Amino acid sequence: MNTLSTYTLPSEPSSRFKAGSIGEKNQQKVLEAALTVFSRKGFSGARIDEIAKAAGMSKTNMLYYFKTKKELYQFVIVRVLRRWLGSLGDLHSQDQPIDVITEYITNKMQLSQQYPEASRLIAMEIMAGAPVIGNFLQTELHTWVKQKGHVFLQWQREGLMAQIEPAHVFFMIWALTQTYADFESQISAVVKPNDYDSEIYPPATHYAIEVLVRGLNLKSRL
User: Which part of the chain has CATH 1.10.10.60?
Assistant: First the structure.
């Protein structure tokens, strides 16, 4: 099968430390701490010494791994975006639309469940006007949506998918799947689950698939 979508994911900044080394482990600690702090306070509100404290190291030691707050922020953002874009995988016009969209929704819901702070970080960045990733949105993401959308348009020509502009299909999927991470406090207040992950995500995934598969009028290829 010929792949119609050839977009290459943005490269994640490479680590200068050997896998499994103390340096690599400390770098991961910094990244995890940074994700937590950035997701709560955004880029402008986060402080280097606060991130260092969350990582369990001194500010001087932390700056050995990442020289500036912006470098650290960009590294975290790229990792999140790679997970999100990679969750769709390769698309082929010969694929079953229902299977592709069902798997994509499931993957995006799993990412929201496993990395809720990452989802909130992206939401905060975009609501602030995307000061750091604006160029990515206008170039790489624009290209990704356009190229992946070629397959959607082919499905629409074959009568396998509703005539909806591909970009809006992505907006709907992103909005529905990410809301369970971004608005966890609101959902928890309304539903009052004893355990958010086990009580909210399984049925929410099922509902999201039901709504979107029906709304997009997806049909199986014979």
Answer: 15-67
d(CA 59, CA 49): 5
Is 150 exposed, middle or buried (CB count within 10 Å of its CB: 0-12, 13-18, 19+)? middle
pLDDT tens, residue by residue, 114-148: 999 999 999 988 998 988 888 888 988 999 999 99
**Which residue intervals of the chain bear CATH 1.10.357.10?**
77-215
Q: Cβ(166)–Cβ(148) under 8 Å?
A: yes
Distance CA 210, CA 2 (A): 29
The CATH superfamily assigned to 77-215 is Tetracycline Repressor, domain 2 (1.10.357.10)
Architecture of domain 15-67: Orthogonal Bundle (1.10)
Locus of tokens 């999201």: 208
Find the range with the poorest average confidence among 16-25, 72-81, 94-103, 197-206: 16-25
On whether the CB atoms of residues 186 and 165 are closer than 8 A, the answer is no
Closest CA to 170 of 197, 137, 121: 137
Spatial CB neighbours of 136, under 8 Å, sequence gap ≥ 6: 10, 81
Q: Residue 32: which H helix or E strand, with range? A: helix 22-45
pTM (2 decimals)?
0.83
Output DSSP code: residue 113.
H
